[in-house]
Amino acid sequence: MILRWLLPIGFVGLVAIGALLIVYLLRPQYREKRVSATTIWKRVVSQTKKPRPTLSNLLIFFVQALVLAIIAVGFAEPRLYSETVIAADSEMVLILDSSASMRAISLNDKVARFEKAKNEIKKEINEFFTQAEEGVVSLIIADASPSYLLSDIKKSDKDEMISAIDALECTLEESDLEEAINLAGKRVEINPYAKIFIYTDTEIASLGDAVEVINLSDKTNEQNIAILGCDVAIVDNQYTFEVHLGAYGDITRKCNMSFDIKGADNGSGPRNLHLSVPVAFASSETTSSLEQTQSVTIVATNEQYGGQEDWFFETYDEVEIFIPDLNDSIPDDDRYFVYSGLRDKIKVEYWSDNANSFWQLAFNNLSTNMNKTRAITFHEVYTDMDMKAENSGFEFYIFEHSIPQEILDAGLPKDGVVLLVDPDETINQTDIGITFDKVVSLDKLTPCQIETAHPLTQHLKAERINLTKYSQVTVQQDSKFQPLMLIDNNPILLVKNTQTAKFVVMPFSINMSDFYGDQFQIFIYNLINYFMPVTLSNNDFNLGEKVQINCKGDTVEVKHGEDETVFVNFPAQITFDKIGTYTFTTTFGIERENEIRRAYVHVSTQESNLFRRAEFKITLNNKELAGEEGKDFFIWLAVASLILMVIEWYLQFKYIL
Amino acid sequence: MKGRYFTDEFFDRLERLALNLPTTLTGYYGGKHKINKYGQTVEFADFREYQPGDDIRRIDWNLFARLGKYFLKLYTDERQMHVRIYIDCSASVGFYPEKAEYILGLAVAFGYLAIRNNDKVSFHILKDGSATDPFGLIVGKNAFYSAVGKMKDITFGGEADFADTIPNIPDMSTNDGLAVVISDFLTENKWKKAVDYFLFRKQHVVLCQVLDKEEISPTYGGKLNLVDCEGGGNGDSKNVQVSISRAMIASYKKELASYIAQMKKFCDSRSVAFLSTGTDIAIEKLIFGKLAQYDIVR
Fold this sequence. Notes:
The complex is a heterodimer of chains A (657) and B (298). By secondary structure, chain A is of the alpha/beta class. Chain A folds into five domains: 2-29 and 38-82 and 632-656, no CATH class; 91-220 and 617-627, von Willebrand factor, type A domain (Rossmann fold); 224-339, Sandwich (Immunoglobulin-like), CATH 2.60.40; 344-530, 3-Layer(aba) Sandwich (Rossmann fold), CATH 3.40.50.880; 544-602, no CATH class. In chain A, 22% of the residues lie in helices and 35% in strands. Chain A is built from eleven helices and 35 strands. In chain A, helix 4 (113-131) packs antiparallel against helix 5 (158-166) and helix 7 packs across helix 9 (518-531). The mean pLDDT of chain A is 84. In chain B, the strands form three sheets. In chain B, strands 5-4-3-6-7-10 form a six-stranded mixed β-sheet, with helices on both faces. A two-stranded antiparallel ribbon of chain B has the order 1-2. In chain B, strands 8-9 form a two-stranded antiparallel ribbon. The model of chain B has no long low-confidence stretch (mean pLDDT 82). Chain B has helices at 8-14, 61-67, 91-94, 97-116, 141-151, 162-165, 191-200, 213-216, 246-268, 283-293, and strands spanning 28-49, 71-80, 82-88, 120-127, 130-132, 177-183, 204-211, 222-228, 240-244, 273-278. Chain B folds into two domains: 8-25 and 81-216 and 255-293, 3-Layer(aba) Sandwich (Rossmann fold), CATH 3.40.50; 31-79, no CATH class. Chain B contains ten helices and ten strands. The longest helix of chain B has 23 residues, at 246-268. The interface between A and B is medium-sized, with 24 and 41 residues.
C-alpha cells in the first residue's frame, strides 16, 4: 500500500502549527485587576476551577496542533493505493499485436507491419526515457495468450529492452487484444497516469484517453487475396468443391486459381487432375469497405472450366488450391489443401440362421444420418443362398442366434467388433469367456436395468426395454466382460473392449423383446460411436485451434513435419500451432491396418482480413486528481479532527469552567 | 463625598414613613412606639376596678354614676427606641463611590425615620477592624442634620470586623431598639456572630446588603489576577487567579445568588430582616418595598 499526496501544497497548512506555538508563547499572562472583594470569585473558583497544570496546557496545545496537522494533511489530499504507484507521466505500457495479420508486408517497401511496429515502439521508448528519467515501461505481447514480456523497465535497462524487442517474431495465431488491453488496464487502475499504446493493425473504437492506438495498416500499399476455405460435398453423386475467396484492400484484379487433385480415382486407378480457374476482384467506389468475398464452385465434371469427360472421379487423396504469382501482403493464406478420408468406411457383416430386418434397418438409417462422417455398408450373409460368413474385412460382425460353423472353424474375427446376439450352445465352442447355460422364459414382458453407465448404454432407457425370454450365461471372472444391462440379475448386455478383442454379447432374441425402434437405433448409434469414433471432426483447422481427437484403435500418432506426438488416452486434445498438414495415424491392437487421416492447418481466416475492425467494451481514462482512484480517507481525517476538537473542548471546559 | 441623598427632597420623600417595632420594646419614655403596657399617654386603652392606692384622679366617674363602682381608665404606653446604625466603611464599600454613597444614604434614611419618630439614633462606623461613633447619640432633628452634614467627611478603608468590634461597643442595651447593619457583606468575617449578638441583646435586626452593579454583573474578563482591595496587594491570600469567560460570569452570578440565598436563609431562621439590593435601585423603593414587606416601616 502506497500513500500519495495529490495536493502536496496542502502541507503549507502545517505552518499554522508554528503560528499556534507563537500564539502560546505570546499569549497574555494573568493581568492584575483590583476588585472590591474576591469572596464570590473564590467561591466560584473553589467549586469549578482547579489550577490548570502545565501539563494540561501542553495537552491542549498538542491536541490543537494535531487538529491543525490533520487539516493540513486533509488539504494535501492523501490517497492510498493498493500497489506501487509510479509517479505521474512516468509509466508507459506498450501492447504489441503479434497476430498473423501483423506479418502483412507493404507492397511498397516490403516491410512487415510487425517490423514497423517494433521500430515505432523503440522510437517511443527512446522518446519516453528522454522525457521521464525515472519512468518505467512495460511491454505486453498480444498473441493468443497475452502476457507481459517486460515489466517496469527503467532507463538503465533500456538497451536490454530494445534487444528483446529486436528479437521478437510475429506469430501466425490470432491475438486476444481484449485480454491484452485488460491486462494493461490494471496498470491504469493502479497508476491513474499510466499511458497505454497499442500497436496493432486492427481499427479499434475509442478506448478512453489513457489509450492511444497506433494503427499500422496501410490501405494504400497493402493488399491481400486469400483462400479462406473449401467446402466439399457430394451432390448428385459428384464431388462439389466450393472455394471461398477473400480480397482485402483496394483490389481490382484478375488472376487464376490453380486447382490440383491428386489421387483422383474413378475405379481405373489414381491419377492427378489440374484445373486453372479464373477469378476476378473489383473494388467498389460505392462502398468504403475494403473487404470482398466470393465463392467459386467446382463440380467434378468441371465442364465449366474445360475439364474432360474422364475428369470424373469417385475418390481422391488431396486437393491443392493456390493462386500463383499473387504477390500480396500475406503469402501464407494463398494456398489451401483439402484432404479426403473425411468419411470413415464402416462395413457390417450380418449372419443369422433366422434373420430379421431390424439390424439392416437400423444401420441403413444411420448410414443416412452419418453420411458426412461415415460411409456405412451393411452386408447380410444369406444362408439360404449358400453364402458363407467372412471372419475378416469388416468393422462389425453380427452373429445372431448362433455362430456359423465356418466361423467356428476359422475362428472369430480379429479385425473388428463381434456382436453375439442371442447365442446358443455354439458359444461354448469359443474361448471368449462366456458359456451358455439355459434359456429362461418369462411370464410377461419384463423390463431391464442398467447395471453400469457406459457409452454403449448412453441415452438408453432400460425401462423401455422389455424381454420375455433370454439366455442365462456364465461369465468367467478373467474374461474381462463387463455387464452393462441386467434382467433378474442376469446379464443381457456385456461388452469387452481390449486391445486384442472387442466383443458385445446380447444373450436375448430381439424377436422376444420390444428392443426395437428408437431404443434399438440409439444402441446402434452408441455402438458405432463407441467402437468407431471419428478421429477428427473436420479436415481443415485454423492455426491455434484446439481440437478433440478420438481413436477407434489403440493409439493415434500425430505428425507434422519432423514433429511427432503419440496419444494413448482418449478423447485427447490437440492444439494446432503450426501451419501445414498434420497426419493422424490410428493403430490397432486387433488385426487391422493402420488408418491414416490428414488435416490442413491454415492461418485463421480472420487474419487474412488486413483492415478489420474491433470494438471492445473497455474504457480506460487517465482520471483527474479529484477522481475516485485510490482509497480516499478524507472522511477518517474529518472524524479524527472532530474527535480531537471534542477532546480539546473538553480539556478547555475542564480547566476553565 | 457629594451626598445626593442628603437633600431636602430626599427627606421629604421619607416624611410619610415611620419605623415600626413590636410592642415588647423597653426603652425610655417619650417615644412614639406603643408597647403592650399601660402608661400615661392620652390614648385610652382599657378599664379596671379601682384598688386601694390607685390615683383617684384616674377614676371614671361616669361609670361610677352608671354602675356604682369605681373603675380606673387605663391608657397606652409609648417608649422611645434606640436605632443603632452600623455602617460598613471598609475599603470594599469605598471601592465603588456610588456604592459608598448608597450605603451612607441608606444609613441616613434609617436615621431620619428614627429621628422623625422621636427615637434616638447612633451611627457606628466600622472600618480598619474597629468601630467608632463619631456623632454620638443623636436625638432631635437638629442634632441629626448636624450629623448628616458631617457624614460627608466619612472615609473608607481597611476591613470591617463585625464579629469582634460590635460586641465591644459600650452603648449596647437590651431590648431597646433596632440594629441596622449596612454592608456589602462580601467578607469572610463572622458577621453571623454579630447578628447572634444582636439577638442576644434582644435587638431587632435589619441587615442591608448593598452591592454595586459591577459586583452583581462583572464586566471584566480574560485571564485576571483579581486583587482584593482589602488585601495586602500582590501575593495576598485573598487574591485569586481566574480566566473569566462568559461561562465563568454565569457561574459567578449563580454563586452570588447562592451566597445571598444562604444569607437570607440564615436571617429568616432568626427572624432577621434581610435586604439585598444593588445601587441601581432607589433607596425609597427599597424602603417602601422590601422594608414594608418585613413590616419594619409603615
